[in-house]
Amino acid sequence: MKVKLDMFWASLFCSIIGLILIYLAALNLEAQKVEIKDIDFDMIGRFVETEGKIIYKKSHPSGHLFLTIENEGSKIQVPLFANVMDDLKEIGFDEDDFAKGKIIRVKGIVNEYREQLQVIPRSGEDVEIVSG
Question: What pTM does this model have?
């Protein structure tokens, strides 16, 4: 009986320590800073940070804003879905703030849509207007 009880406490202790370590690791995840030219299909699913000049902008009636940014001749799509736009509106930004020619810094998950790479921000805090 003592062996079973010891195993129980050892298992419980290891489980709790494991959960604490996973939680701490999640808090410290930082976006990998990359140039647009270095983002490729092998990076799908990774959390990255990049920046570029807005060269294309299209709004959607559902509240989405679709951007393409460019840096040193390389381009990537940045869809700002309605939930992200709502976050941005809460902190004082709207669609007009994302004009062609402005430089933005974006953190997001690399994804593929119709054979094109995208960086998809998770919230309004992942998007910053740098200049322009």
Answer: 0.76
